[in-house]
Specification:
- This protein is mainly α and 293 residues long.
- It folds into 2 domains: 8-132, Ferritin (Up-down Bundle); 136-289, no CATH class.
- Helix content is 84%, strand content 0%.
- It is built from 11 helices and no strands.
- The chain has helices at 8-34, 38-62, 70-83, 85-107, 112-130, 134-137, 139-164, 167-194, 202-226, 230-255, 260-289.
- Helix 1 (8-34) runs antiparallel to helix 2 (38-62), helix 7 runs antiparallel to helix 8 (167-194) and helix 7 runs antiparallel to helix 10.
- The N and C termini lie far apart (82 Å).
């Protein structure tokens, strides 16, 4: 049944919904074609078929064929390729929360909108939960590496900054400390997983933990290789720490449906708190031990 031509507001809403469905159909289809894992490929194909079915319903009302949003297809395709299927799809579904308000408005006039809304909420979430990704299976190992690097090295660099007051020397000491700590953390994670019956590969877990630690170390050390003033370097290091916390917390919050604000505040409070205490210890050590470099 076509939408009455005189109801232009409703027609525009239907066309937006129709465009959204055909766009997502192409996103899921494109991802399924590039996915190696057979299980994930099948899940993506099923989601794509749902979107195409919804598109057909809207087309039945508008009587028009709609071109997909090519920019959106490109954007979410690369988001999924870079950050993983689960993150990309759940990010896309969060955007759908806004579209659901539109569907609720349409449902008052077109009953099909209510059925599609229920279908979207039920079937797609079930399918998304079936996705199996290695990076999320080892999210705990990544969190361990990141958290420990942020807390330990941010605190160490803050302490070194006032105790040494030489950016190149701070960078060298920090780098040695960070690499040694990353190897220690990786070894600890390996031994932990060896005694754990959870089914995780100990070597992969160790690599994820050590890799996350090393990447964080590099980001925190870089300011001391750029600036000559240790206070400027420290401020940028703290900024980098907050940036890492923001990006990773957002990733985990979306991928695992967690509360972003709570985790962000908690991680920032711990990292910055330790940095503040360590800076104070550096001040005391310099004053009482008379260190002058």
């Amino acid at each position: 049944m076509d939408v009455p031509l005189h109801d232009e507001t409703l027609r525009r809403r239907l066309l937006r919904a129709q465009k959204n469905e055909i766009t997502e159909y192409h996103i899921y289809t494109k991802l399924s074609e590039r996915t190696v894992d057979p299980h994930n490929r099948q899940v993506l194909k099923r989601i794509a078929s749902e979107e195409l079915k919804h598109y057909g319903v809207w087309r039945g009302h508008t009587g028009e064929e709609i071109e997909p949003d090519r920019l959106k297809i490109w954007f979410f395709y690369w988001i999924c390729r870079i950050f993983g299927l689960t993150f990309g799809i759940k990010l896309m579904e969060k955007e759908e929360d806004l579209a659901q308000l539109e569907y609720l408005n349409i449902a008052g006039t077109i009953p099909d909108a209510k059925e599609i809304l229920e279908d979207e909420g039920r079937h797609e979430q079930e399918l998304i939960d079936l996705l199996d990704e290695e990076r999320l299976r080892y999210a705990g190992s990544i969190v361990l590496g990141l958290n420990d690097a942020l807390v330990e090295l941010t605190g160490s660099l803050a302490g070194f900054s006032f105790a040494l007051q030489n950016t190149r020397l701070i960078a060298v000491v920090g780098l040695i400390t960070g690499i040694a700590a990353s190897l220690s953390m990786a070894a600890s994670e390996y031994l932990s997983k060896k005694t754990d019956s959870g089914g995780s590969d100990p070597l992969k877990a160790a690599l994820y933990t050590g890799g996350a630690y090393v990447i964080t170390v590099i980001l925190l050390i870089i300011p001391y290789l750029v600036f000559d003033n240790y206070l400027h370097a420290l401020m940028l290091t703290l900024f980098n720490a907050i940036l890492v916390i923001t990006v990773f917390t957002f990733y985990i919050s979306v991928a695992q449906d967690l509360d972003f604000r709570k985790r962000f505040v908690e991680m920032c409070a711990i990292s910055m708190g330790v940095a503040g205490v360590s800076f104070g210890i550096g001040v005391l050590i310099r004053l009482f031990l008379g260190v002058d470099i």
